[in-house]
Amino acid sequence: MRIMIILCFAVFMACSQSSEQVANDEKMSYAAMKTSVKINGDSIPTVQKSEEEWKKELTEMEYYVLRQKGTERAFTGDLWDNKKEGTYVCAGCNLALFESGTKFRSGTGWPSFYEPIRSECILEESDRSHGMVRTEVLCASCNGHLGHVFNDGPLPTGLRYCINSVSLDFIERKEKE
Hints:
Elements: H1 2-12, H2 19-24, H3 30-33, E1 36-39, E2 42-45, H4 51-57, H5 60-66, E3 86-90, E4 96-99, E5 103-104, E6 112-113, E7 122-127, E8 134-139, E9 145-150, E10 160-163, E11 168-172
């Protein structure tokens, strides 16, 4: 069933690389191969940069989390306790990911949300690292590691997107005058 879904998705999305290029890099995820993410007919271009470009643009901790799938220590990020209204965007590419209205206090020490702005903005992959089976959350535009999603969140979704603060930037909503 999973293979059928992946094949259907692959047919649906246009690939920017030839099969020969893909064969040369077996570790490249499908997210990095597609040309864009479609949202209501609009395309979100896929960000493709070399590791050297990422290293130049990101801080050491941002690179560790977003590109190397690391995790910041709990209660150390600047956004875990943020109570302001606004939008949380990917620190790697500025794609809008979560709204403050979906953020909740999980007690974990990382920003937690019960749903993304749009499901197309994030990708989910199986993560079997550290002797566990989890669902990793990635930015659909730059394929940056954001965190993980768990089935222990509040209603209406029952999900908890546990996201590293360092993988996010926050854009505060301006009050209308």
